[in-house]
Amino acid sequence: MIWLESAIAIPEDPSAFDTSQSQDHNVIMRDVCIIGGGSAGTFAAIRLRQMNQSVVVVEREDHLGGHVNTYNDMTTGTAIDYGVLYYEDLPLVRDYFGYFGIPLERVSAQKQTANSRRVDLRTGTSVGPVEGNMALALAVYTTQLLRYPYLNTGFNLPNPVPPDLLLPFGEFVKKYKLDGAVDIIALFNQGVGDLLQQTTLYMMKYFGLDVLQGALTEFLQPVSHNNSELYVAAQDELGKDALLSSAIISTRREEEGKWVKVRVSTPSGEKLIRARRLIVAIPPKLDMLQGIDLDPIERGLFEQFNNTCYYTALVKIPGLPQGLQVVNRANDTAYNLPPLPAVYVLNPTRSPNLTTILYGSKEHMSENEIKEHMTQSVLSLRNQGLPVEAPEFVRYSDHSPFLLTVPPEAIANGFYRNLNGLQGNRNTYWMSATFNAHDSAQIWLFADRLLRSISQSE
C-alpha cells in the first residue's frame, strides 16, 4: 500500500548525492528547488525570480497549473475553464496577471447563473427557494469574520483557540442564526465534505472576507476566459527551469547543512539538484510526499491530516436547455443540502454545447463510480420535463485530496502552531492550500508573505 511504503524509511546510498560522481549536465545548482508546479509552486517560482533568486520547479504533470483545467472547444473556438474559475479582486492578483500582460475583467458570479433551478438530483423533483434572510445572515457572518482578523492569511491561531472556531459549522450556524447564509456558503464552499459537520475554522477560512466581497459584488477573470493562460506564460518564462513530467526520487536535508539535495527522475534522465532552500508546494499527505526525507516531527504532523475529495467534469448533455444552471438540493435535509457523495451543480459554459459538473465525496471514489453517478443525476432531470440524454464526457479531473483538515481536538492542542513551526526547518518551507485556504488568490497571498519573511531574515 502507498501509505505503508511512505512510512518506511529506506536508507539512502550516500553516493547518490555525491555531485562529484555526476556529469555536469545532470547537476542543477539553484537558490531554491520547488516541488510542485500548481498554484503555490508556480507563483513562488515567479515571485522568487522577481526577487533575483534562481529556481527550479519539479512537477509530475506535463504542464503547470494544478487545479486549473481548461478545454479549448474547437467547434466554437472557445476556452472553457472547468477547474479554477474566478479570483478575488486584490492588488496582488492584478499585479500577478499584469506581470505577464494578461488583461483581467470583473465578472459577477450571480449574474452568470441567473437562469437556475434547484433540483433534487436523486429524484428529479423541484426544491423550494432558499429560506431565511440571506442579507441579514451574511451581515452577521461578516461580523463574526471580523472577530478573527488572524484568519485572513494562514493559521496563526491564538492560544487558547476560540471555542466557536472549533464547533461543527452546523452548530455555529444555529448559535448565530446564520440559516439564511448557508445556501450561498454551500455554493462557494464546494469540495469540503459535510459542510454542517466540518469544523467552523475551515469554513470561515474558505468563505472569508475576500470571497464574501466577491460573491456580493464581482470577481476577476482573464478577458480570454482562459485561466491556463497564466500558467502557460509562467511556463514560458521558466523554460528549462520547469522540470515537467518529473518525480522526486529522494531528498537529503541535513540539519546543519547549507544545501538541500534532491534526486529527480525526468524525461531526459535522472538529475541531481543542489539548492540552498527547498519549497514543498504540494498537499502534505504522506502518500504524496514519497521520496522526501521526513523527520519524526513532520511525519507526526502530516499523518494527522484527513481530506475531502472533489471532482470536475466537462460534458455534453443533449436536451439540456442552453444557459441553464442546475443546483443540486435535497427535499429532506437540513438547509436542503444534498447528502454526499453528490453532484453539487451543473453549470453552463461559454460554449452552448458544454456543461461543467462539480462533484464531491467524503471518501475517494473511482472515475467510473463518479461518472455513473453523474449520469444518473443528469437523467433524473427527465422528471423536470427536460428531454435530456446521458452526458458525453469530454474532460474529467480528480482534484483529490482536496481540503486537508485535522480534528478540533488537535487544533485546540496546538496543531497549527506546530505546523507553522516547520517553516525553515532543515532549509525547507511549506506552502499550499493546506497552509491557508483552497483559493488561488489566498494561496498567493500566503506564499508572498512567506517569501517576504524569508528574504527579510537573510
TrEMBL record:
SUPFAM superfamilies: FAD/NAD(P)-binding domain (SSF51905)
Pfam families: NAD_binding_8
Protein name: Amine oxidase domain-containing protein
